[in-house]
């Protein structure tokens, strides 16, 4: 009798999962659009059918797969690195923009502009081997906490999107990240957190140089930009890394507009924007935000009938439940 | 009775295939090294075991997966394109290196050096959209013939390597091309010919620019080099595109040495060189060849105990059997 009950329980769980692959999504037009698209794309008799090898789905990262407020998390990583390296750089006590970082003077950091940002990125992202950089990112991810939510950054990924990634992969889609963020920053944790392997992560990069150290080859990160995978760079990155036009594209900002337009070259594709409308559970912002500004893309998405996710309306929960011990 | 015979025949075929996944390879140290490596890498109890997601195998293309004499096939494509475009460029009749190409004056083409080559590459590889370039390559592949062997270029792939690619994929390895050749040239046919999808092709590239034409986004190929995926560029390309160190690497020239050394950073990897020793069935060349020079890598491979394929000794056949009607 007890076994029969357990069996019945497992069976009903299984059925409900099969019936709803996106349990953290509320019923509504966004969920319907996604499920209907995938059902048809994987059904050989359907007009939207997509052969398995063309099932490429691309996702922006910041603001699409995880939060991006109060600033891109990679920028917060860079600021933490300046603090961690300050002992080795006594000159930073008087030199901008480092002085501002060490004094938590965010107004002056912002005022230092692009030139200041590039200085911060250069000292925190170059000069070391790729192995050393990976270790630094890995350790930071373990120990750092989000300044407002006081939780590890990797717990600020969107639960509905994790379910979606699984759902797409279960239906034969290859899931890619196409991010303006750094490719080598993302790859350290994307496989554990999203199930997306390094070879399916596309991002911005700096140049690297092959050198010999202790008789072994290493790649040393150079203070020179190689590629910016944002705006018009996203179709370029997709072409260069994947060499096929995707059939599904998810973004959340004007930086993703060209990626969605590029996907729209093909017929029968799914273009989706995540609209941050939930000030209570996450953040609410669009056309006036410094991070993840969503203006032109929202306008064009509405005109062209792209799917627009209203986070407050469409998502039952935002973040994964904390793991229990 | 007839059915029983057919059944028996199919069964025995099946068994012999299972027994020998590399039927075009002669028994010997190269074949043994490959099969033993794969057996152990896929056996959880073996000291060389490699978890599935780390099973990355990289292959040079020219001279490793197909022939590269009397010149890299992409160079022969470029010369054919100069001839095809000559009507639109009457000035080429007097302008070098185009005059030399149109007069089949290979000595003068060679004498035009790197500057001449870049001029030829610029007019044949840039100025068009990526779609247009793909169509041009696709049409050329269908109609062009190798100047000496008088067969389509895609029939000059190495049958033993096709079997190897299948064998590795059947054992959970992801097979990648890492070529000094052009990524967009390779991707057009690599999937049909090698079973390697565009997203697993790494190669040299020129810059592309996003433009709008007839209200649709296109990428226009620019006459500016973006990345040279050769020599010290190969570890850079592998890092940038794959983000993992491979466990298997195949090359045939000094241009592959850094890729094999990069693979050698990891313990328990398989490094293989294809040595072109068969003047009768293919070509014989190494340290004195202008295309695919093999000198330093052969020396280092011997010293370090890498596997060296002697094409004459190790390969039962070189090219696939022609398809029968």
From TrEMBL, chains A, B:
<keyword id="KW-0378">Hydrolase</keyword>
<dbReference type="InterPro" id="IPR050582">
    <property type="entry name" value="HAD-like_SerB"/>
</dbReference>
<dbReference type="InterPro" id="IPR036412">
    <property type="entry name" value="HAD-like_sf"/>
</dbReference>
<feature type="signal peptide">
    <location>
        <begin position="1"/>
        <end position="18"/>
    </location>
</feature>
<protein>
    <submittedName>
        <fullName>Haloacid dehalogenase-like hydrolase</fullName>
    </submittedName>
</protein>
<dbReference type="GO" id="GO:0016787">
    <property type="term" value="F:hydrolase activity"/>
</dbReference>
<dbReference type="Pfam" id="PF12710">
    <property type="entry name" value="HAD"/>
</dbReference>
<dbReference type="InterPro" id="IPR023214">
    <property type="entry name" value="HAD_sf"/>
</dbReference>
<keyword id="KW-0732">Signal</keyword>
């Amino acid at each position: 009798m007890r076994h029969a009950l357990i069996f019945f329980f497992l069976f009903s769980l299984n059925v409900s999962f099969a019936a709803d692959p996106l349990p953290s999504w509320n019923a509504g037009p966004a969920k319907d659009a996604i499920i209907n698209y995938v059902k048809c794309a994987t059904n050989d008799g359907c007009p939207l059918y997509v052969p398995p090898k063309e099932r490429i789905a691309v996702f922006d990262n910041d603001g699409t797969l995880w939060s991006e407020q109060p600033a891109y998390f990679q920028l917060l990583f860079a600021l933490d690195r300046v603090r961690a390296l300050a002992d080795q750089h006594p000159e930073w006590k008087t030199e901008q923009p480092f002085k501002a970082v060490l004094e938590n003077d965010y107004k002056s950091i912002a005022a230092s502009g692009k030139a200041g940002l590039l200085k911060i990125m250069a000292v925190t992202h170059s000069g070391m081997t790729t192995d050393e950089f990976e270790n630094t990112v890995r350790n930071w991810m373990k120990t750092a906490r989000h300044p407002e939510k006081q939780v590890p950054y990797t717990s600020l990924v969107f639960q509905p999107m994790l379910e979606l990634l699984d759902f797409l992969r279960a239906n034969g889609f290859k899931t890619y990240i196409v991010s303006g963020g750094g490719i080598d920053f993302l790859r350290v944790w994307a496989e554990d957190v999203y199930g997306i392997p390094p070879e399916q992560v596309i991002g911005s990069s700096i140049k690297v140089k092959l050198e010999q150290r202790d008789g072994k080859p290493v790649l040393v990160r150079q203070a020179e930009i190689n590629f910016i995978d944002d705006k018009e760079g996203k179709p370029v990155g997709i072409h260069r890394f994947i060499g096929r036009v995707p059939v599904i594209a998810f973004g959340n900002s004007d930086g993703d507009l060209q990626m969605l337009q590029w996907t729209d070259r093909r017929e029968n594709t799914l273009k989706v924007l995540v609209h941050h409308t939930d000030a209570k559970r996450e953040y609410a912002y669009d056309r006036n935000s410094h991070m993840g500004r969503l203006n032109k893309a929202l306008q064009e998405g509405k005109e062209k009938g792209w799917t627009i996710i209203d986070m407050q309306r469409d998502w039952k929960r935002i973040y994964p439940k904390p793991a229990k011990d």
